[in-house]
Amino acid sequence: MNKKILVTGGLGFIGSHTVVALQERGFEVVIIDNLSNSSLDVLGGITKITKISPEYENIDLREKAAVKGFFEKYPDIEGVIHFAASKAVGESVENPLLYYENNLNSLIYLLKQLKQKEAPKFIFSSSCTVYGQADELPISEEAPVKKAESPYGNTKQIGEEIIFDTCKVTPHLNAISLRYFNPIGAHPSAHLGELPIGTPQNLVPFITQTAIGKREKLSVFGDDYPTPDGTCIRDYIHVVDLARAHVVALERLLDEEQDTNYEVFNLGTGKGNSVLEAIKTFEKVSGTKLPYTITGRREGDITAAYADTTKANEILKWKAEFSIDNALESAWKWEQRLQEKEMEETEGM
């Protein structure tokens, strides 16, 4: 029988691509998503790609009784990949209690239920924000975790500490935290992609929405950083590569003996690109000129961050395969498909 895996936030950007990757590897998936930052339409995209419709539960993970009820309904869950979290840095500064309640309570309630299972496996969606502005580049897992720049970043740090402390006293629980760098792109089929509600918080959806005419122009936050072109440098990783890493990490937990029951891995390409390089690459792959203006620096932005991926390459046997060109091309294809869909819906009204 196929192993049953819970994916929380499974209708979100990274979660939905991971559900596809899991189903393509033969796992049976149950999704929890409360649709606070996603759409039920995503379920249709997953089904179109895999020809399998995963089970879906609309549950708010802040409700302790609902989480308990879920595990009673699905006693055969063997592993959890936990994406569900609020993730906008700016919003977290304005509303810290929302972030602490949502991101930490949901994690605690999941772990409380998992502790009661025989051999639970847990993968946590973490972030390179835990490193802040690292002293050395590329950033390895040995780099010190610095004081968080935002409540969002702090929830990732505290989340990792909660898992570490729980694993220390729960030997039968095996967990991995995956620290992502900057996920971008879309599924090559254009049935799944980044679908921000309201104004995008990330660079690439802002680029594609500007290129297609939904936004007047793109703002580049600062060109006076100590980098070759003055703009921030990030490690942009294709979401399909990132999704595949979750499957590989899960299979490690399910199939291999580890020296420790808690591990941490960086997930990136190992290469940094500046904001202006990302814009120029998009213009090249799309054939579209982007209107943009340089504005002041944004609070909380660090100068540069890109991953040392040696540990993930060697231990997980995982490596990012797609380039930034591939990722931006897929993101543009997704944006164009969204526009076609909107036009079809308008004409059908």
UniProtKB/TrEMBL annotation:
It is an enzyme of class 5 (isomerase). Residues 6-329 form the NAD(P)-binding domain. It comes from the Bacteria. Keywords: Carbohydrate metabolism, Isomerase, NAD. CDD domains: UDP_G4E_1_SDR_e. The keyword Hydrolase does not apply. Its EC number is 5.1.3.2. Gene3D superfamilies: NAD(P)-binding Rossmann-like Domain (3.40.50.720), UDP-galactose 4-epimerase, domain 1 (3.90.25.10). Its cofactor is NAD(+). The keyword Mitochondrion does not apply. GO terms for molecular function: UDP-glucose 4-epimerase activity. It catalyses: UDP-alpha-D-glucose = UDP-alpha-D-galactose. Pathway: Carbohydrate metabolism; galactose metabolism. Homodimer. NCBIfam families: galE. Belongs to the NAD(P)-dependent epimerase/dehydratase family. This is UDP-glucose 4-epimerase. It comes from Salinimicrobium flavum.
